[in-house]
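Internal QA ticket QA-208
Title: Verify multi-chain structure generation after dependency bump
Assignee: T.L.

Test input:
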Amino acid sequence: MTSGDITTLTPAVVIIGAGPSGLSAARELAPRINGEVLVLDRESTAGGIPRHSDHPGYGIRDMRRFMSGPAYARRLVRQAEAAGATILTNATVTNWAGDRAIEATTPRGRIRVEAQAVILATGARERPRPARLIPGDRAHGVYTTGHLQNLVHLQHGKVGKRAVIVGAELVSWSAALTLREAGCRTVLMTTEYPRPDSYSLFSVPGRILFRTRVATRTRVTKVIGRPELRAVEIEDIDTGRRRVVECDTLVLTGDWIPDHELVRAAGIAMDPGTNGPLVDNALRTDRPGVFAVGNLLHPVDTADIAAIDGAHVVRSVIAWVEERRTPAEQVRLVADAPFRWVAPEIFRPKDPAPARRRLLLWSDRYIPFPRIVLRQEGKVVVRKRLWWPAAPGRVFRIPTSILSAVRPDAGPVHIGVEP
Amino acid sequence: MNTTFDVAVIGAGIVGSAIARKLAGYELSVALLDARDDVGDGTSKANTAILHTGFDAKPGTLESRLVREGYHLLSEYATRTGIPVEHTGALLVAWTAEELDALPGLRRKAEQNGYGRTEIVGPEEVYRQLPHLGEGVLGGLTVPDESIICTWTTNLALAADAVGRGVTLLLNRAVTSVEDLGDHTVLRASGGEVKARWVVNAAGLGADVIDRLFGHDRFTVTPRRGELLVYDKLARPMVNKIVLPVPSSRGKGVLISPTVYGNVLLGPTAEDLVDRTDTGTSEKGLEFLLGKGEKLMPDLLREEVTATYAGLRAASDHPDYLIEADAGQRYVLVGGIRSTGLTAGIAIAEHVAELARGAGLVLVPRENLPEPPRMPNLGEAFTRPYQDAARIAADPAYGHVVCFCERVTAGEIRDTFRSPIPPATLEGLRRRTRAMNGRCQGFFCGAEVKKLLESRGESACGQSHAPQEARR
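Actual output:
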């Protein structure tokens, strides 16, 4: 429902989300396309999630640098603006207004944006406590990493003294760093998996550095304390034994879900594995002229990988604006257990290879050197041993060269592992 | 406090607030006390938020009459104050032969309760109206006037209206003892005593305890915990009606209901407790709801859960509302008000005023009563500030969205701190604006909302324009 007058803008391309993927797309598109590139972001500062993560580790793959999250975010913003893109912050997209048109609310008024192409770059967020169905009291002091980092890095707020972190992935250690900066000790990390999920590079020194114990095969079964958190109940999944761990802060990390509301509102086809839109290797969705990039597609990979998607989509966006053509030949990729999802989900052999010539997958099991198997119509098409591990809690990458033997006319390609 | 009020109402939930508002319409000085730091922070905040026709009440009871009257009174009050209401209608769904056989009886009962618009329908019609229901529906009973309402706004409107009419709102006053001094009663409470000639006990979960302080032993409140799951707004198109179970001897059962905020509720459980403050959720309760949901509407369970909560109903051993006036003590008990109290509140207040008059409280109508407040709209079915171009043009703070999931603006948050009953806590702010109640539960806005709470709504409103102006 809308009342009153609204302003209409007509850029060539509108990008929704000014995080690493959206800003990289803007930087690459603006000099190459005839017309304006407009980036909308609902936050008051552009840059996305890296702004909240005040520690180094950003920009490695896309900028060949090693910098802090906020520095990386600022650099992306500068680059996009220098390339000629317009960034509008405090602009919340509230609805579609046509196939490639949206409506947004800004402090300067309601706007309608009608573009020739739309790039969705809305990213992902961590599932909060209710979505994880953790029972118990409604205590204060329960956060997701995003909430925690916002509180500590952007608002300089206070947290407690003793924290339990749910998760032992990369983002979990990022949460531990943030807690330490806020003067809060992490007394325990819990993970349902049989081993910590992040690179051993982080988890071994991490444990020593933070004096933190990682309890594997455990889960939080109860939140205790009201109004303030006093403790959590932890269950050993194998024995069923439960114990109470005193803490005043609980951080729920990982368990990502894409911010896919606009995708669903548009009726764009989705992948139940990623919970994001189905895309092909050119990052097209099934709505002509609507593209998707970044962690909306692979929840969640590192910021630099999201940024590389942004650069990758440019060629297909320009092709759409100039030619409005999609290659017909395609084959569906399907993740089989232990893989939860694969991105992109559609392979078009006539299109350029996916970004960095990699398929991205999420594994629910740790496998040291997985032997990847591709099946089509029940028959094995490819078998290939990879010399790096698949681990829960971080993206597993497969070179797209593995797809060269795939037959485009032969039905879905199932991607699994062999013992 | 040296003032002696004409009436002190204990409990600022929906019922107590409605009573205080009603009595303040007469030439009376009225105090409204609550043990908590906000109005509506007990039973009133956590229910299924249904505006009942009263079709399934026990015919002939006080509850039946007051719910029926309350339905019309609250509907009319909602129109005047802007409390969001959606007339979705309800469908009672029969899943077993036994439940199907019960439908004609329920229809007769509805008629005895003065509600004649129900209709028995076959399974095709049920699935036509609710295509996502699970397999095995045998039939249903339509209740076209059951509606959904915002319980938070109802409570706030009544309390703000009461304050507008001159009621003194006293928060953080838990009454611990009562002394009758013949012409007035002294209520000793945390935070100071309150003196009043008349006392109305609308203390909800604590009403039996207060009643005992007055020397009675009429009833016992058993806190009955109801746990609920709130599903994502993306599930709302599946559920455009309230889906009611056929009541059995074990209670009303689990329903699926749309909410005025655009979500879908699944619940409640029913579990009798001892602890009157235990509003935690339980493993057993959540599992039970998921089991029920899987049968009722399996598609709903594929959606994300936005919130889980538990409310405590003031169940009692008395089968009806227990509303009695004691002329000698100048005291009125308003006890045993179960979940229908949301609907019945205003009618209960009318009834209490008449009872008190009969017991000797002199009621002289006041002239020039102020208009009831216009409440900010929290409902999805009506224009919200972020959608209102004219309003944003007049005040850019309504264009500054702070909570992205619920689309709450800095202007709305600021306004609550300038309202007659400003929020004292984050929970209070959430109930007034919906901020942080959405799918991310604060991932994006939690820190900013906290800052806004600390600055009483001012921090974002000034700041929101700076980047815009810098761009010009």
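Spot checks passed. The mean pLDDT of chain A is 93.
Status: verified.
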